[in-house]
Amino acid sequence: MAYAYLFKYIIIGDTGVGKSCLLLQFTDKRFQPVHDLTIGVEFGARMITIDGKQIKLQIWDTAGQESFRSITRSYYRGAAGALLVYDITRRDTFNHLTTWLEDARQHSNSNMVIMLIGNKSDLESRREVKKEEGEAFAREHGLIFMETSAKTASNVEEAFINTAKEIYEKIQEGVFDINNEANGIKIGPQHAATNSTLSGSQGGQQAGGGCC
Amino acid sequence: MATDNRINFWRKSAKVPGSIQPVYGAQHPPLDPRIQHTFPKDTPKANSLKTKKASSFHEFARSTNDAWDIDDEEDEDFAPCHPATLPPTPHSTSHAPPPPPPSQPADSNGDPRSPGQLDVAAAELRLRPEEDTAGGQVNGRVVVKSSSEALLNTNTARSTLQKQQSLPVRPIIPLVARISDQNSSGAPTMTVRDKSRLDKFKYLLSCPNTDLEELRKHSWSGIPREVRPITWRLLSGYLPANMERREQVLKRKRDEYFGFIEQYYHSRTDETYRDTYRQIHIDIPRTNPLIPLFQQPTVQEVFERILFIWAIRHPASGYVQGINDLVTPFFVVFLSEFVEEDVENFDVASLPLDTQRNIEADSFWCMTKLLDGIQDNYTFAQPGIQNKVKALEELVSRIDEDIHNYFKRNEVEYLQFAFRWMNNLLMRELPLRCTIRLWDTYQVTLTPPLYSTPLGHIPGDINTSTVQYASGTHTR
């Protein structure tokens, strides 16, 4: 399928917070309460539209267990966006955010857009982390924030799409070097030619938006 | 020395014999001569790149298509024992789906482990006849077939992205049906050869001192279901070869296991072990999630105990996700001793408590033995897996340069797809029936644990030498 851009995402966070469920909800619009646990990495993809442009999201869903951390790190490379997920019903998953963030910042490119997600918002009665706490953490670390429910699909689309919008804006602003695939952005096949001529004369910091 | 030579051979020889020759030792079906013609023997590299790219992997895939064939005869070891009783079966070919059952001439005495055999997967995955002729398992065939196609599709990689549009990656049907191989209902029609194989096993198992070497030799090409539980116990080194000591050892080990439970299981709520237990606890419902058997509280508790005790006794790695999958084959095989009807729906709580406990303890010990040989798969940074994935990459780069280059071009790293293969010993990639069959072969090389890889466990020079080669570069 033709697309203007491809963004690579990575989903990270503690084990059992609902990373795979978020992905499944986003790509398949369904919720599977009991599913296989993720080993290593799994993939999903979906096309979205931003500003009238087709954007393909290629999403890497990672295993959350600590033991896999050294393997997971290699997946950060070349991601344009990250969804950092915690479970609002489990305080410890929120407490581990700092470690995750450090890891992400250290192993990804500095422009990676990180969306903080408090998942399982449907389980209000079991809530251990207030929404305000999530917001505060996000503000403090310069992240976008949303509470979602992979079960009811609440805010799931928004989480993925808002992250993409943020990346798209950064491209427009010329923050991302779209010709360097290490940034997790690929120009779609039919756009490649126009883009490369444009940026060829202006070096790395070229805004991709100019072409379309 | 011989090993050295072999390593050097694999290291140096750019042309891997298996990729060129249609290798089919005793484990391999005769190839369709039409395929043979089109094998890319010394095809010039530069020209017809496109055609070649399209052809070589597919030819290989087609040539191994019958890996999923179920009526295939593979065990040649017994041929010499009862030559007279084995009627030769006609040669047939098998590459059109659904493949007609290919058979080897029964009286062929070819070396079953000819060096350079390549379609290891084919050899290993082929199912024993009695497993599939069993009544009511007709759909097993369909399932297996589709699963094989799924594998091929994945490997073709051309359509990777389209394929990735949706989760889950695992097909659903095989999950449900994959277990049925251990069902004993629907008495399978035994061929003369099956019968003689079984007799041979029974004979070996009834000797006062089981000849483990012989047992290994025969198990390599698959263990008859009926004798699989005891054979697995013997091969893993859990059960002694000496018949007289068996009862006593079993009792001692089972008591020992429940001693651990008594002594340590309550500590799961302690500060030290709370995280370990919690992880296991949330993973168990996600283990074989679509098979009713594994959703039973009784079974989930068994798995929790086994994994928790194993984890605290192996602090170097602790519990790592994926190990939970390794209990399953043992549990199913040992449970099958007591189950007449379909295992996947069997109510384990209906068994006498003693029986339940024995299954649990035996599963624990056999899993422990298996893990002893591959613990570096699960220690910090998982060096065992990293090395095995490297070995796999090395192997593929020789066997199928095209697919290897394709991966490189598209920046597909082997770790991205092969990590789970190694981490879960293919438990996620194959129907359980196939995994169990594959593990027959693992167990053969398990004791002593020479080669600690899912690939390395498969006898056959190509794998062992590659693994030895890889372990030579082992850095930790």
UniProtKB/TrEMBL annotation, chain A:
CDD domains found in the cross-reference section: Rab2
Assigned keywords, A-Z: ER-Golgi transport, Golgi apparatus, GTP-binding, Lipoprotein, Membrane, Nucleotide-binding, Prenylation, Protein transport, Transport
Chief localization: cytoplasm
Cellular component terms (Gene Ontology): acrosomal vesicle; endoplasmic reticulum membrane; Golgi membrane
GO MF, one example: GTPase activity
Localization: Cytoplasmic vesicle, Secretory vesicle, Acrosome; Endoplasmic reticulum membrane; Golgi apparatus membrane
Official protein name in the record: Ras-related protein Rab-2A
Similarity section: Belongs to the small GTPase superfamily. Rab family.
SMART domains with a match to the protein in the record: RAB (SM00175), RAN (SM00176), RAS (SM00173), RHO (SM00174)
Membrane topology, from the record: Lipid-anchor
UniProt-listed GO biological process terms: protein transport; vesicle-mediated transport
Automatic annotation (TrEMBL), chain B:
SMART domains tied to this protein: TBC
Biased composition (Pro residues): 85-104
Region span, Disordered: 20-57, 74-117
Family matches, as SUPFAM superfamilies: Ypt/Rab-GAP domain of gyp1p
Domain Rab-GAP TBC: 222-446
Record keywords: GTPase activation
MF-aspect GO terms: GTPase activator activity
Name under which the protein is recorded: Rab-GAP TBC domain-containing protein
Keyword Nucleotide-binding: no
Keyword Zinc attributed: no
Organism: Esox lucius (Northern pike)
Superkingdom of the source species: Eukaryota
Gene this chain is encoded by: TBC1D22B
Pfam families in UniProt: RabGAP-TBC
